[in-house]
Design a protein that fits this description.
- The protein is of the alpha/beta class.
- Helices cover about 40% and strands about 15% of the residues.
- β7, α10 and β8 form a beta-alpha-beta unit.
- α2 packs antiparallel against α3 and α5 packs across α7.
- It is globular, with a radius of gyration of 18 Å.
């Protein structure tokens, strides 16, 4: 993947936005990376038409769907599963894996993402990949998807994404996970592409720096806004799906926000706003409001892992 410094962002309209400069930069870099990866991907195969006649609207070319990844599309965090795969390949030590496991437990209990922990995630992940080739990590990511991620996709959320695809709409993952990992997952699920955190690389080698900041919170909203502008989308026609209150900025951008497996803060906010809710963690409907019938396909039992992270022991 090209270095962050080499991205051509001239197509993005410049205007004032209620976000930090680093959030804007992260969002725009993610949008540019997503557009490039989707242009390189083969076209998706045609599938059977959606059973839901009202939404998504078939043939609405101004609409698209944006899905958070961790605990929305997939149980647990992609970065945690990726870390397990890297540990198996001896990228780091057993003591680090124990620390990652503790983080998994913490996030399960806390039910929300802590900014300090997010910073630790960023720093540890960057230190692990620094000096490695992008192509190497992409190849390993394909293997890790098969080993740890494929069976953790929520069938109900997958059905929602398929409904948009069947309606002729593009579907994007939007995640703080590395854009390379997110792109692999999107391709395996037959989605259009992915917006993810962009790590700088020079000559195909990771430098250990980010372009902007992790694609989290406001940065996700900026990425969706930038991609919608580039793709000629009408955000009022678009849908967004997430489990976390941290994604309220992204959900608030679109005309059709969905709370999927929501944390307590998002559930409360969604109910206040009249947003659609759905919980696949127990197979029960959660204050269903106009949810497509396809969403009920294959709901899973059992608790979902909350957002987790790679965190390397500080020296």
């Amino acid at each position: 993947m090209p270095s962050g410094a080499l991205f051509d962002l001239g197509w993005i309209p410049r205007r004032r936005r209620p976000a930090t400069a680093r959030s804007v930069l992260a969002g725009e870099a993610a949008a540019e990376a997503a557009r490039k990866s989707s242009q390189e991907a083969p076209p998706a195969e045609e599938t059977e038409a959606s059973a839901e006649p009202d939404f998504p609207v078939v043939g609405d070319t101004a609409a698209a769907a944006f899905f958070d990844l961790d605990n929305t599309v997939m149980q647990g965090a992609a970065l945690f599963h990726f870390g397990r795969g890297l540990y198996k390949r001896r990228f780091f030590h057993k003591r680090d894996l124990a620390r990652f496991a503790w983080q998994q437990i913490y996030f399960r209990l806390a039910g929300s993402e802590n900014p300090e922990h997010m910073a630790d995630v960023r720093n540890s992940a960057l230190s692990i990949v620094q000096g490695h080739r992008v192509a190497e990590l992409m190849s390993i990511g394909e293997e890790i998807y098969d080993e740890y991620m494929a069976e953790r996709v929520w069938p109900g959320t997958r059905a929602l994404a398929q409904a948009h695809l069947d309606a002729g709409q593009k579907v994007w993952l939007v995640t703080a996970a590395p854009v390379e990992t997110a792109t692999i997952i999107a391709r395996r699920l037959g989605l259009t592409g992915a917006l993810g955190t962009v790590a700088e690389s020079v000559g195909g080698v990771y430098t250990g720096k980010l372009v902007g900041e992790p694609l989290h919170g406001p940065a996700k909203a900026e990425a969706v806004r930038a991609l919608a502008s580039a793709e000629g989308l009408d955000l009022s026609h678009c849908a967004a799906y997430s489990d976390s209150a941290n994604d309220i900025p992204m959900l608030s951008l679109v005309g059709h926000p969905y709370a999927i497996n929501p944390d307590s803060r998002l559930r409360k906010h969604a109910r206040e706003q009249g947003w659609r809710l759905r919980d696949y963690r127990t197979g029960r409907k959660a204050a269903k409001i106009g949810i497509p019938a396809a969403a009920g396909v294959g709901a899973l039992a059992g608790g979902a892992a909350a957002a987790v992270a790679l965190q390397r022991r500080r020296r």
